[in-house]
Amino acid sequence: MAPQRQFLPLLLLLSLPAFFLYSRYHSSPHLSLSSHSLNPNPDLDLPSNLGPPLSSIPNLSNFSFILKVLTFDRLSSLSRCLRSLAAAHYGRDTVHLHIYVDHFRHADNVSDLLDQKLDESRGILEFVDGFDWKYGQKVVHYRTGNVGLQAQWLEAWWPSSDHEFAFVVEDDLELSPLYYKFLKSLIQNYYYNSSNFSPSIYGASLQRPRFVPGKHGNKIHLDDGTRIFLYQLVGTWGQLLFPKPWKEFRLWYDTHKAKGIKPFLQGMVTTGWYKKLGERIWTPWFISFIHSRGYFNIYTNFLHERALSVSHRDAGVNYGKTAGPDSYLLDESSLDIELLEMQPLTKLKWYDFCFKEVVPGRVIKSFEELGSVLYPVQKQDTIIFVSLFGASARFIRNLLCHFQSSNIQNYILMGPNSDFLLDLARRGYPVIDVDQFLSSIRAHKMKSLRDSDMEVKKDILVKAYVIQKSLESRFNSWVVDGNMIPLSSSPFLDTSDANYDFHAGKAPEVLFVRSSSSSQKFWVDDFIHKVAGMVDSVMGRGKKFVYIVGELLKQEGMRIKWVDEEGSLSLRIDSRNANQTSMANRKKPVFWSPELGSDTIQKRLEELGLWIIDSEDSCTAVVCHQS
Q1: Whole-angstrom Cα distance, residue 308 to residue 334?
Q2: Is-contact 223 188, C-beta < 8 A?
Q3: What is the pTM (predicted TM-score) of this model?
Q4: Which residues on neighbouring strands pair with residue 239, listed in sequence order?
Q5: Pair 593, 573: CB distance under 8 Å
Q6: pLDDT for residue 139 is more than 50
Q7: How many whole angstroms separate alpha carbon 549 and alpha carbon 525?
Q8: Rounded to the nearest 10 degrees, what angle do helices 598-607 and 393-405 cross at?
Q9: Do strands 484-485 and 502-506 pair parallel, antiparallel, or not at all (unpaired)?
């Protein structure tokens, strides 16, 4: 039967591969770190030779490129596919061809079509046996039973080295003669060139991007000047796979299958597909993996509905009847661009499953760099600065999932240099490396920053400095700690009083500074000197940044509004059973004391329906908001 119309997007993804991504971006400042420090999978070593001369790549003795062609019972489709691959330009390179022929279902043995099925299989085998492939080895794998698309994809490849690449092709595809030149140039530029390498990039798709899997996501819209971009979604109509991400996925898949963990991801169209079709498809597994790792895929945009790989959407498993080519094939006759011209990775745009732009690598290391990030982050002239000091990574990830759900985007995270901080930046969250940020500021050479209270002192000082920079840029500032969760897109607006420039709360510790002429004149270097001078006096007394600011404002005769009386600012979670009824229809943030204990806090958040990360600390849902 022909697939129903609402399932056509599913057919675009019924066969998908995938892998890795991280990197920097065109917005400053950029992350400048070693490949090792950015490795999102420390258990797998990164390629040891990341930057050989481009001209030497094809001569590497261990460099290998393998075509993986998946076929079933469409001889004419397979013939067209293989002939297009044979017509491509490989130069003197060795390219191996592996053909995987799926068997017809044994249930068909009882039907009158048995002889026809046998003849079809023999016809395909005779054709592939006689097909001349002069560029490398030809290997044919004929299955003894029907395994379907999931096994065809997952079992087609286990990389033999970090320099082996697979290009997976289904039999109803037609490839441009230029496809290999393009992929080789891409591998040279984004895998072997250390300045462009990102361990978060899992491969490249040659199909024309058409589908957004996040419900209510943005339409795919790219400017005419964009030739290459990054997108989380895997493309099944001609997908290049990088070795390490594929190995990581296979191991991840094995673990989840063995433990009975399903690839359910709320807010994704593909989850609905899996619930209907189960193990007949594999792409929801890969999408869930990509979501948990924060990886991306390289895509092309050649305009005029052109691509280097075209699906003819022939009648078969995916289509009840032939739908015809999805795109126009880009070849020499229609080539009007510099095909092999690859932009630096820092110039490329990145998009998530909602086709919302992501900006990886924003690690702020100096007072000056902060200014360049404030404007693109701010919303309604307001910035939320979130301190990570003393906060568990799991609770911060849960907080970020709530930010995503509530469409809160105007925030910057502040914490000490750590793998966790760098991973947040890799995933697209703007962060301040407090250690380097404070080191760049010479106004206070505090010897006491080296003592046992160093973390608390850094937390106090960085809060003072980010507010100063925000005021210089004429933005309002909220400074909060990581022991809270917002329940609305404007979690603090109800507490703001236009008659006050300063609002503060002690439980939880928050401070709001309105940008005004008086606050700008007050919050200057001299004030920060006074903050620094009071740091030692509050150590060990349980009093921190808000207390210091409150005391200094009182000394200067400045008015401050305290907003934490009787739950006016937020709702506390304590050691008693959480009262979910009291939380209903509330928009105020919830908070807790760090002394409560992580297990108790998590239990209370679960009872309130506010624990929205899974066992891998990934958001349980993808929530799209129209840009």
Answers
A1: 11
A2: no
A3: 0.86
A4: 168, 205
A5: no
A6: yes
A7: 14
A8: 20
A9: unpaired
Three-class secondary structure assignment of 178-225: CHHHHHHHHHHHHCCCCCCCCCCEEEEECCCCCCCCECCCCCCCCCCC
What lies within 8 Å, CB to CB, of 253 at 6+ separation is 154, 285, 289
Q: Write the burial class of residue 563 (CB in 10 Å: 0-12 exposed, 13-18 middle, 19+ buried).
A: buried
Rounded (10°) angle between helices 114-130 and 75-86 = 10
Vertex 520 angle, CA 518 and 534, to 5°: 100
- Residue 516: other Cβ atoms inside 10 A: 15
Alpha helices, DSSP H, located in 473-524: 517-522
Query: What is the per-residue pLDDT across 103-119, written as a single tens digit (0 to 9) for each?
Result: 988 765 566 788 888 88
**Ramachandran assignment for 220, one of left (phi > 0), alpha (psi -120 to 50 degrees), beta (any other):** beta
Q: Which amino acid is at 327?
A: S
Strand partners, 310: 174
- Centre a 10 Å sphere on the Cβ of residue 131 and count the other Cβ atoms it contains: 17
* Peptide linkage before 589 cis (omega within 30 of 0): no
Instruction: Note the maximum CA span of the chain.
Output: 95
Vertex 136 angle, CA 134 and 137, to 5°: 110
- Please tell me the predicted confidence (pLDDT) of residue 68: 98
Rounded Cα gap, residues 138 and 63, in angstroms: 17
| CA–CA distance, 379 with 134 (Å, rounded to integer) | 59
Instruction: Judge contact between 488 and 479, C-beta under 8 A.
Output: no
Sole residue written with tokens 């990088």: 242
Terminal-residue alpha carbon distance, the chain: 38
* Whole-angstrom distance, CA of residue 250 vs CA of residue 289: 10
CA distances (Å), origin 580, targets 338, 565, 571, 606: 60, 21, 11, 10
> What confidence category does residue 38 fall into, taking pLDDT thresholds of 50, 70 and 90?
very low
Whether the Cβ atoms of residue 504 and residue 518 lie closer than 8 Å to each other = no
Can you point out the beta strands (E) in 90-152?
95-101, 138-142
Count other C-beta atoms under 10 Å from residue 278's C-beta.
Answer: 11
